[in-house]
Design goal:
alpha+beta, about 25% helix
Amino acid sequence: MSKRDYYQVLGVQRDASAEEMKKAYRKLAMQYHPDKNPGNKEAEDKFKEAAEAYDVLTNPDKKARYDQFGHAGLSGAAGGGFAGGFSMDDIFSRFGNIFEEMGFGSARGFSGGFGGGFGGGRRGVNRGSDIRIRVKLTLQELAKGAEKKVKISKQQSCPECKGRGAVSSADIKTCEVCRGSGMTTRVTQTILGHMQTSSPCHACGGEGTVITKPCFKCHGEGLVKGNEEISFNIPRGVAEGMQLTVSGKGNAARRGGISGDLLVVIEEESHTELQRDGNDLIYTLFISVVDAALGTDMEVPTVDGRVKIKIEPGTQSGRILRLRAKGLPDVQGYGVGDLLVYIQVWIPVKLDKSEKELFEKLRSSPNIKPSPAKEDKNFFERMKRMFT
């Protein structure tokens, strides 16, 4: 099951302050605390989900990676997720001061039981859907980064009513059924005592307000279809299949909610000469028997243009030359890969009479006959030496 957007989990805008996030998290922690919902697995999951969202969005480094790459940007980050991360004890330990501020007598319990006005629902926040696009990048763009512009068709905030859905603000009234909370509460008698359940208000759909005079252009939805040109930066070192997040550039939400995201999936265009292997680049260089025997200087391609390399006399087919830091940068900033030049000695297929005579003269020469070193006979040892 895919993770929900962290901003949607807390019900805050993307530019919310730390204090606003803390306030939003406190409300959720009160609502879904396990001591208030004993044996309720759904409430426990929501309690953990809220803690996960708050942990990421209040950590500058995690928040920056999440805003840029979404949930994929937190893979492997310490404390960046709960898939194999926080237990309940971790949550209480990390956010214990917040629980104390809320009036908990201890990390795991409410002071004074379930009293003190902890009940009540919480109005939902509309969120627009995400839009996913694919962008092709050349090897040079992968290495240097790039700025891209795309024009997409999307749901936009209605310009007539500014996304309200109503002709004017006066035409938006507080729901009389839920009194603006967006939730209705029902109390039933069970063998264990009174049981209180909350659900979205049927009259306002959980929004807490009703529109008495809908906008004629959007018919009360607050949304219209339109086109938008969006610019965004591609960081250096991204790879095929990686997904970047352009926050808030997806479909707008109904009636002033949180806009969805634009999800940019990276595709790599094939290079005519270079192949990618992680952050390393691989180039196969074919050389003649003469150049392999006598040595020479040759040019090889890189992302920055062609560079000269030296082929030593006696270079064997299969040798790999490593050009340090001539590969691709790591997207997380952990250095730059190498260019690996794989040497292949080209054996001529067709020879004229004079060429055949020349090779016949060389056939009996002791220096022409194979005489591999002992370690060259061992395949695995030879593979190790290829990368020297």
